[in-house]
Design goal:
The N terminus is likely disordered. By secondary structure, this protein is an alpha/beta fold. The chain has 13 helices and ten strands. It has an eight-stranded parallel barrel. The protein has a two-stranded parallel ribbon with strand order 9-10. α11 runs parallel beside α12.
Length: 387
């Protein structure tokens, strides 16, 4: 859920819903886009890029996907309503050509209460189960944003801060991965085929943004430890899992990522993909800033690591339809250029309330915007290239 969407609930109501696990906090408000990817890395941070081009999906032990995999952010409204209503939305999402659906696996939602008497926390997977199984049933591969704090584990009781003991987060990540691993009984017990290649994971959302991770001065070091432990915990439960660094906003991204790699050098070898959220005013600017960030990754020694663009888009206030649909089509097409090494391309967002601030490809009135057709055209062309 975006900050703009949280604002429609009201600040106090939103916080109480977050703490209760009723609202998933994915994605921040989209205000004035940045115009650069942050300060360039220093000379000491630059390293020779690895040879051989960016690492494809097959190297993670998953079925190879020719080209870029297209998906969509679900948004908090996607899963509201009856089972039949949600199932219809998910089928429509798959029908426009999306292959991946991104949504939160919120720590505070699954583990709202801490351990008692030395036992593991009581885990409430009901809501997340419904979402994961529903997506898979519709033919969509879940991309779970494993993230945020839970009040019992953080020093200030907040959700947008790292836990006092990073191992508590790692245990949560391991529990999520074990529950949704392809070998888990949850698929058989519910009569749903596990997604080909397994569930995908992203650790946190926009960890270089103050809204999502408080105290940015020390955030790179804290996030690096959290990421490393979470990755290893997930792979211990699901060895073939593909894990993305939480999507970075452009401002300060290079400096933040360099700090993460300095704090935990092992991540250079263990990172599967880098998440990236290139919100800009035009499609041309989106592609340009992504090309700049690709060069930054090369300089940091991550030339072979794919970029997962796990958010991109415009509100109808920023760019009204039908012009928005044309910009979206240009962006989704341009970002599939081979030199960019984009592994996932996941716009924001499938469903949103009608109004000028809406990012939704669909509106809650049931109306599809012209952007749905734009996405479908790009998906058809991508499918043709894979044949």
């Amino acid at each position: 859920m975006s900050v703009a969407a949280l604002g429609r609930y009201g600040a106090v109501a939103s916080l109480s819903l977050l703490l209760a696990g009723a609202v998933a906090p994915t994605s921040q408000a989209r205000t004035r886009p940045s115009t650069h990817p942050g300060p360039p890395p220093t000379v000491a941070e630059k390293q020779e890029g690895s040879a051989g081009g960016w690492r494809g999906w097959a190297d993670a032990g998953e079925p190879p996907l020719r080209g870029t995999a297209l998906g969509i952010n679900a948004g908090g409204l996607m899963f509201e309503g009856s089972d039949a209503t949600v199932a219809g939305r998910l089928r429509s999402t798959a029908g426009m050509g999306a292959r991946v659906l991104r949504f939160d696996a919120s720590w505070s939602g699954v583990e709202p209460l801490g351990p008692i008497g030395g036992r593991d926390p009581v885990r409430r997977f009901g809501s997340l189960d419904r979402q994961v199984l529903g997506a898979a049933r519709a033919g969509l591969r879940p991309l779970l944003v494993v993230g945020y704090g839970t009040p019992w584990a953080t020093s200030d009781g907040g959700v947008f801060t790292t836990p006092s003991d990073p191992a508590t987060f790692a245990r949560f990540a391991s529990a999520v991965a074990a529950r949704y691993a392809s070998s888990s009984a949850i698929w058989r017990d519910n009569g749903v085929a596990a997604p080909a290649g397994g569930v995908l994971y992203e650790i946190w959302n926009e960890p270089n943004a103050e809204f999502f991770l408080r105290d940015q001065q020390t955030a790179p070091q804290r996030y690096a430890t959290l990421l490393l432990l979470a990755q290893r915990a997930i792979r211990s439960a699901d060895p073939g899992a593909r894990i993305t660094v939480g999507g970075l906003v452009p401002v300060g991204a290079a400096r933040f990522l360099a700090g993460v790699l300095r704090a935990e050098p092992a991540l250079r070898r263990e990172v599967d993909a880098i998440g990236w959220h290139p919100y800009e005013r035009t499609a041309a600017a989106v592609v340009r800033i992504t090309r700049q960030f690709r060069r930054t990754l090369d300089a940091l020694g991550l030339a072979s690591v794919p970029l997962d663009i796990t958010e991109i888009g415009w509100s109808e206030e920023e760019i009204p339809e039908p012009r928005r649909s044309r910009e979206l089509e240009r962006a989704l097409t341009g970002l599939q250029a081979p030199g960019l090494g984009v592994g996932l391309l996941v716009p924001f967002v499938a469903l949103d309330r009608a109004g000028p601030g809406s990012y939704g490809l669909w509106r809650t009135t049931g109306e599809a915007t012209e952007s749905v057709d734009a996405f479908a055209r790009v998906a058809r062309r991508a499918a043709g290239r894979r044949r």
